[in-house]
Amino acid sequence: MAARGPERVSVLLPTYNERDNLPLVVWLLARTFSDSGIDFEIIIIDDGSPDGTQEVAQQLEKIYGSDKIVSCVFMPRKLFLFPSGTAYIHGMKYATGNFIVIMDADLSHHVRLDFMYCGKQKEGNFDIVSGTRYKGNGGVYGWDLKRKLISRGANFLTQVLLRPGASDLTGSFRLYRKEVLQKLMEKCVSKGYVFQMEMIVRARQLGYTIGEVPISFVDRVYGESKLGGNEIVSFLKGLLTLFATT
Protein backbone atom coordinates (compact mmCIF):
# COMPACT_ATOMS: atom_id res chain seq x y z
CA MET A 1 0.00 0.00 0.00
CA ALA A 2 1.40 3.39 -0.98
CA ALA A 3 2.01 5.87 1.83
CA ARG A 4 -0.42 8.76 2.10
CA GLY A 5 0.79 12.32 2.24
CA PRO A 6 -0.28 14.92 4.80
CA GLU A 7 -2.96 16.14 2.39
CA ARG A 8 -5.30 14.12 0.23
CA VAL A 9 -8.06 14.95 -2.26
CA SER A 10 -11.24 12.88 -2.44
CA VAL A 11 -13.35 13.25 -5.59
CA LEU A 12 -17.06 12.55 -5.14
CA LEU A 13 -18.41 11.41 -8.49
CA PRO A 14 -22.20 10.86 -8.56
CA THR A 15 -23.32 8.77 -11.53
CA TYR A 16 -26.55 7.77 -13.19
CA ASN A 17 -26.33 6.04 -16.58
CA GLU A 18 -22.69 7.04 -17.18
CA ARG A 19 -21.17 3.75 -18.35
CA ASP A 20 -19.71 5.36 -21.48
CA ASN A 21 -18.26 8.43 -19.74
CA LEU A 22 -17.03 6.83 -16.51
CA PRO A 23 -13.89 4.99 -17.75
CA LEU A 24 -12.60 8.09 -19.52
CA VAL A 25 -13.23 10.55 -16.70
CA VAL A 26 -11.61 8.20 -14.16
CA TRP A 27 -8.57 7.71 -16.39
CA LEU A 28 -8.20 11.46 -16.94
CA LEU A 29 -8.52 12.20 -13.23
CA ALA A 30 -6.03 9.50 -12.24
CA ARG A 31 -3.50 10.72 -14.80
CA THR A 32 -3.92 14.37 -13.76
CA PHE A 33 -3.48 13.65 -10.06
CA SER A 34 -0.53 11.36 -10.65
CA ASP A 35 1.23 13.88 -12.91
CA SER A 36 0.68 16.59 -10.29
CA GLY A 37 1.90 14.45 -7.40
CA ILE A 38 -1.40 14.85 -5.53
CA ASP A 39 -2.57 12.03 -3.25
CA PHE A 40 -6.16 11.21 -4.18
CA GLU A 41 -9.10 8.85 -4.32
CA ILE A 42 -12.18 8.76 -6.53
CA ILE A 43 -15.46 7.74 -4.94
CA ILE A 44 -18.09 6.65 -7.43
CA ILE A 45 -21.62 7.05 -6.08
CA ASP A 46 -23.95 5.27 -8.45
CA ASP A 47 -27.70 5.64 -8.07
CA GLY A 48 -28.79 2.23 -9.30
CA SER A 49 -28.09 2.92 -12.97
CA PRO A 50 -29.90 0.43 -15.25
CA ASP A 51 -27.30 0.82 -18.02
CA GLY A 52 -24.51 -1.12 -16.28
CA THR A 53 -22.64 1.82 -14.75
CA GLN A 54 -22.23 -0.16 -11.52
CA GLU A 55 -20.51 -3.02 -13.34
CA VAL A 56 -18.14 -0.58 -15.07
CA ALA A 57 -17.33 1.03 -11.70
CA GLN A 58 -16.52 -2.36 -10.21
CA GLN A 59 -14.19 -3.13 -13.11
CA LEU A 60 -12.44 0.21 -12.63
CA GLU A 61 -12.03 -0.54 -8.94
CA LYS A 62 -10.23 -3.78 -9.80
CA ILE A 63 -8.03 -2.06 -12.36
CA TYR A 64 -6.93 0.89 -10.22
CA GLY A 65 -7.14 -0.67 -6.77
CA SER A 66 -9.84 -0.31 -4.15
CA ASP A 67 -7.82 1.39 -1.43
CA LYS A 68 -6.28 4.50 -2.92
CA ILE A 69 -7.43 5.06 -6.46
CA VAL A 70 -11.12 4.24 -6.83
CA SER A 71 -13.77 3.37 -4.28
CA CYS A 72 -17.15 2.28 -5.62
CA VAL A 73 -20.24 3.15 -3.60
CA PHE A 74 -23.68 2.15 -4.80
CA MET A 75 -27.03 3.63 -3.84
CA PRO A 76 -29.92 1.18 -4.16
CA ARG A 77 -32.50 3.37 -5.85
CA LYS A 78 -32.73 6.42 -8.08
CA LEU A 79 -32.68 9.04 -5.31
CA PHE A 80 -31.38 11.96 -7.35
CA LEU A 81 -31.77 13.17 -10.89
CA PHE A 82 -29.43 16.07 -10.27
CA PRO A 83 -26.38 15.52 -8.02
CA SER A 84 -27.67 16.47 -4.58
CA GLY A 85 -26.92 16.35 -0.89
CA THR A 86 -28.21 12.78 -0.75
CA ALA A 87 -25.41 11.59 -3.01
CA TYR A 88 -22.67 13.65 -1.40
CA ILE A 89 -23.63 12.70 2.15
CA HIS A 90 -23.46 9.06 1.10
CA GLY A 91 -20.06 9.53 -0.54
CA MET A 92 -18.64 11.50 2.38
CA LYS A 93 -18.88 8.40 4.55
CA TYR A 94 -16.07 6.88 2.49
CA ALA A 95 -13.94 9.98 1.94
CA THR A 96 -10.52 10.02 3.62
CA GLY A 97 -9.18 13.21 2.05
CA ASN A 98 -8.55 16.59 3.67
CA PHE A 99 -10.16 18.23 0.65
CA ILE A 100 -13.29 17.13 -1.20
CA VAL A 101 -13.98 17.80 -4.87
CA ILE A 102 -17.49 17.48 -6.24
CA MET A 103 -17.93 17.27 -9.99
CA ASP A 104 -20.01 15.63 -12.71
CA ALA A 105 -19.07 12.37 -14.39
CA ASP A 106 -20.26 13.38 -17.87
CA LEU A 107 -16.99 15.07 -18.98
CA SER A 108 -18.58 18.52 -18.82
CA HIS A 109 -16.02 19.61 -16.20
CA HIS A 110 -12.32 20.05 -16.84
CA VAL A 111 -10.35 17.34 -15.03
CA ARG A 112 -7.34 19.59 -14.40
CA LEU A 113 -8.13 19.72 -10.69
CA ASP A 114 -4.56 20.71 -9.89
CA PHE A 115 -5.29 24.32 -10.84
CA MET A 116 -8.06 24.40 -8.23
CA TYR A 117 -6.16 22.60 -5.50
CA CYS A 118 -2.52 23.59 -6.00
CA GLY A 119 -3.40 26.91 -7.61
CA LYS A 120 -6.36 28.86 -6.35
CA GLN A 121 -6.83 27.13 -2.99
CA LYS A 122 -3.19 27.52 -2.02
CA GLU A 123 -3.11 31.07 -3.34
CA GLY A 124 -5.74 32.34 -0.89
CA ASN A 125 -6.04 29.45 1.57
CA PHE A 126 -9.74 29.34 0.67
CA ASP A 127 -12.29 27.13 2.39
CA ILE A 128 -14.07 26.65 -0.94
CA VAL A 129 -12.93 27.00 -4.55
CA SER A 130 -15.81 27.19 -7.00
CA GLY A 131 -15.59 26.80 -10.75
CA THR A 132 -17.43 29.65 -12.45
CA ARG A 133 -18.79 29.84 -15.97
CA TYR A 134 -19.68 33.51 -15.65
CA LYS A 135 -16.42 35.24 -14.74
CA GLY A 136 -13.16 35.95 -16.53
CA ASN A 137 -12.63 33.62 -19.48
CA GLY A 138 -15.19 31.08 -18.25
CA GLY A 139 -17.95 29.96 -20.57
CA VAL A 140 -20.44 27.33 -21.69
CA TYR A 141 -20.13 25.30 -24.88
CA GLY A 142 -22.62 22.98 -26.56
CA TRP A 143 -25.79 24.30 -24.90
CA ASP A 144 -28.78 25.50 -26.84
CA LEU A 145 -30.26 28.93 -26.19
CA LYS A 146 -32.93 27.54 -23.85
CA ARG A 147 -30.42 25.98 -21.43
CA LYS A 148 -28.24 29.09 -21.49
CA LEU A 149 -31.22 31.27 -20.64
CA ILE A 150 -32.28 28.94 -17.81
CA SER A 151 -28.79 28.93 -16.28
CA ARG A 152 -28.26 32.67 -16.70
CA GLY A 153 -31.73 33.40 -15.40
CA ALA A 154 -31.23 31.21 -12.34
CA ASN A 155 -27.99 32.95 -11.47
CA PHE A 156 -29.45 36.42 -12.10
CA LEU A 157 -32.44 35.79 -9.83
CA THR A 158 -30.18 34.43 -7.13
CA GLN A 159 -27.86 37.43 -7.33
CA VAL A 160 -30.78 39.87 -7.06
CA LEU A 161 -32.59 38.11 -4.21
CA LEU A 162 -29.76 36.66 -2.13
CA ARG A 163 -26.61 38.66 -3.02
CA PRO A 164 -24.35 35.68 -2.29
CA GLY A 165 -21.10 37.28 -3.44
CA ALA A 166 -20.28 34.52 -5.95
CA SER A 167 -20.83 34.57 -9.71
CA ASP A 168 -21.93 30.98 -10.41
CA LEU A 169 -24.46 29.59 -7.96
CA THR A 170 -25.77 26.58 -9.87
CA GLY A 171 -22.46 25.03 -10.90
CA SER A 172 -21.43 21.67 -9.48
CA PHE A 173 -17.64 21.82 -9.84
CA ARG A 174 -16.17 22.78 -6.47
CA LEU A 175 -13.43 22.01 -3.97
CA TYR A 176 -14.14 22.11 -0.22
CA ARG A 177 -12.18 21.60 2.93
CA LYS A 178 -13.65 18.39 4.28
CA GLU A 179 -14.74 19.89 7.61
CA VAL A 180 -16.37 22.82 5.78
CA LEU A 181 -18.36 20.51 3.51
CA GLN A 182 -19.48 18.46 6.50
CA LYS A 183 -20.70 21.59 8.29
CA LEU A 184 -22.56 22.83 5.21
CA MET A 185 -24.20 19.44 4.74
CA GLU A 186 -25.63 19.77 8.24
CA LYS A 187 -27.12 23.18 7.40
CA CYS A 188 -28.45 22.57 3.90
CA VAL A 189 -31.95 21.19 3.39
CA SER A 190 -32.38 21.55 -0.38
CA LYS A 191 -32.44 18.75 -2.92
CA GLY A 192 -31.69 18.65 -6.63
CA TYR A 193 -30.85 21.73 -8.69
CA VAL A 194 -31.13 24.24 -5.82
CA PHE A 195 -28.71 22.34 -3.57
CA GLN A 196 -25.57 23.86 -5.10
CA MET A 197 -26.98 27.35 -4.67
CA GLU A 198 -27.83 26.82 -1.02
CA MET A 199 -24.31 25.53 -0.31
CA ILE A 200 -22.79 28.86 -1.38
CA VAL A 201 -25.42 30.93 0.42
CA ARG A 202 -24.88 29.00 3.67
CA ALA A 203 -21.11 29.23 3.27
CA ARG A 204 -21.32 33.03 3.12
CA GLN A 205 -23.58 33.05 6.18
CA LEU A 206 -21.06 31.00 8.15
CA GLY A 207 -18.16 33.22 7.10
CA TYR A 208 -16.28 30.70 4.96
CA THR A 209 -13.94 32.09 2.31
CA ILE A 210 -14.73 31.35 -1.34
CA GLY A 211 -12.36 31.61 -4.27
CA GLU A 212 -13.51 31.38 -7.88
CA VAL A 213 -11.76 29.90 -10.91
CA PRO A 214 -13.10 30.50 -14.45
CA ILE A 215 -13.97 27.21 -16.17
CA SER A 216 -15.17 26.14 -19.60
CA PHE A 217 -18.25 23.98 -19.21
CA VAL A 218 -18.75 21.61 -22.15
CA ASP A 219 -22.06 19.82 -22.71
CA ARG A 220 -21.99 16.12 -21.98
CA VAL A 221 -20.40 13.82 -24.56
CA TYR A 222 -22.59 10.73 -24.08
CA GLY A 223 -26.09 10.40 -22.65
CA GLU A 224 -28.84 12.91 -22.02
CA SER A 225 -29.05 15.89 -19.69
CA LYS A 226 -30.88 15.21 -16.43
CA LEU A 227 -32.20 18.77 -16.10
CA GLY A 228 -35.95 18.90 -16.64
CA GLY A 229 -39.04 20.87 -15.79
CA ASN A 230 -39.33 19.41 -12.30
CA GLU A 231 -35.83 20.59 -11.42
CA ILE A 232 -36.61 24.13 -12.63
CA VAL A 233 -39.77 24.29 -10.51
CA SER A 234 -37.83 22.92 -7.54
CA PHE A 235 -35.17 25.58 -8.04
CA LEU A 236 -37.71 28.42 -7.99
CA LYS A 237 -39.34 27.06 -4.84
CA GLY A 238 -35.97 26.64 -3.18
CA LEU A 239 -34.87 30.14 -4.16
CA LEU A 240 -37.97 31.67 -2.59
CA THR A 241 -37.47 29.58 0.55
CA LEU A 242 -33.88 30.78 0.90
CA PHE A 243 -34.98 34.37 0.30
CA ALA A 244 -37.54 34.06 3.10
CA THR A 245 -35.23 32.34 5.56
CA THR A 246 -31.80 33.92 5.04
UniProtKB/TrEMBL annotation:
This is Dolichol-phosphate mannosyltransferase subunit 1. Transfers mannose from GDP-mannose to dolichol monophosphate to form dolichol phosphate mannose (Dol-P-Man) which is the mannosyl donor in pathways leading to N-glycosylation, glycosyl phosphatidylinositol membrane anchoring, and O-mannosylation of proteins; catalytic subunit of the dolichol-phosphate mannose (DPM) synthase complex. The lineage of its organism: Eukaryota, Metazoa, Chordata, Craniata, Vertebrata. The keyword Magnesium applies. It comes from Callaeas wilsoni. GO terms for biological process: dolichol-linked oligosaccharide biosynthetic process; GPI anchor biosynthetic process; protein O-linked glycosylation via mannose. One of its GO terms (cellular component) is endoplasmic reticulum membrane. It is an enzyme of class 2 (transferase). It is found in: Endoplasmic reticulum. InterPro entries: DPM1-like, Glyco_trans_2-like, Nucleotide-diphossugar_trans. Residues 10-184 form the Glycosyltransferase 2-like domain. Its cofactor is Mn(2+); Mg(2+); Ca(2+). Its main location: endoplasmic reticulum. The keyword Metal-binding applies. The gene is Dpm1. PANTHER family: DOLICHOL-PHOSPHATE MANNOSYLTRANSFERASE SUBUNIT 1 (PTHR43398). It catalyses: a di-trans,poly-cis-dolichyl phosphate + GDP-alpha-D-mannose = a di-trans,poly-cis-dolichyl beta-D-mannosyl phosphate + GDP. Keywords: Endoplasmic reticulum, Glycosyltransferase, Magnesium, Manganese, Metal-binding, Transferase. Belongs to the glycosyltransferase 2 family.
